[in-house]
Amino acid sequence: MEGGWPAGRGLLLCLTVNLLLQGKGGTFTINCTGFDQYGVDPAAFQAVFDRKAFRPVINYSMPTQVNISFTLSAILEVDAQLQLLTSFLWINLMWDNPFISWNPKECVNINKLTISAENLWIPDIFILQSMDVDKVPPGLTAYVSSEGRIKYDRPVRVTSICNLDIFYFPFDQQNCTYTFSSFLYTVDSMVLGMEKEVWEITNTSRDIIQTQGEWELLGITKATPKMSVGSNTYDQIMFYVAIRRRPSLYVINLLVPSSFLVAIDALSFYLPAESENRAPFKITLLLGYNVFLLMMNDLLPASGTPLISIYFALCLSLMVLSLLETIFITYLLHLATTQPPPMPRWLHSLLLHSTSPTKCCPTVPQKGTKDLDLTPSHLPGLKEPVELVGKVPDPREAELSGCPGSTGSQQEGEAQKQHLVGLWVQFGHVMDTLLFRLYLLFMATSVITVIVLWNT
User: Fold this and answer.
1) pTM of this prediction?
2) What is the distance between the alpha carbons of residues 340 and 123, in angstroms, rounded to a whole number?
């Protein structure tokens, strides 16, 4: 017939359609003769096993969707020097294999099977930030449902790059990234999706690691950008993991002892300035603080300059400054009692304007400081100028002692010397007061800073 199909071509087309239909029925449906109450015959899945080297799709123009989720079960190590985070993950992958299906009613009501993972096609999902070889334990299995859905779980120890900021150590929070992507398949062959919601991943991970180690999980967020490499585009899912260090260990072992030593050093201002025990006491504290820093050095980060290191440096500087001030005051008092030098006019004016009656230190009552308008509260433990240079002789006492040559000029010289001693003693006390107030300001600032950082 004109315009019709030739007889040979029509016969060939019928044979081809018949073979395709038979192939579809025999290839995509598992024969239930291999299922019984004692197990499943591996021969029933042999056709699927033979295809494990190829991506399981009927039409290669259609991409395979792989759903991803994970559980962060442990944070093993955070290396601030190498900027590495070592963690333990349970990675969950799920995808469909159209070459696997069976009717559970015809197959002794079996809805799910476990098959060795080495017999199936496994998507090459990896973590971009990983710096170690992906060591998967051998002998893992995958769950296969009657609809051809495959669920594959594998534990992974991940050593990944993480941009660590340790400035607020031990109150630091870190944000690390896990980027899941395929190494071979572009978006034309593989697309990634979520098996669970992010809040489910966060809650499950937090419940597992909440009682382990020094780190706690704050939250997990995600993003789904595309990665372009040359002319190829790869699908990927980025998980941002926020973790926070538990600071209790470091507060108890570092901050509390350091604060006690600084407080004791501040209390040393209660000792008299001319006492011989003040300088040795401060030297002992300084040596003890250095020993403490050497012993606790292993708890500090090996790299970077965290805020706690600055705090220790300031504590050490204050203690050294306090010791130098004690040495200077001791020398000044010794010089004032032997041959007091005249006080410069600018320093005398500064003393007049800088003193105030505010109480801050323990004191010993004083006499002879009224000319500076200073109350006894400003002179902790300092002797009176009269005690340091000796008592000025009274004219009647001089006359009775057979010293009629004692004149008023001698008395005036002694009084002037006593006055200079009082000025230098007061200058030393003002230095003690200022340094003591600096200690109080530093300790108050440190306590407030710790409270704020701990609660943020």
Assistant:
1) 0.71
2) 89
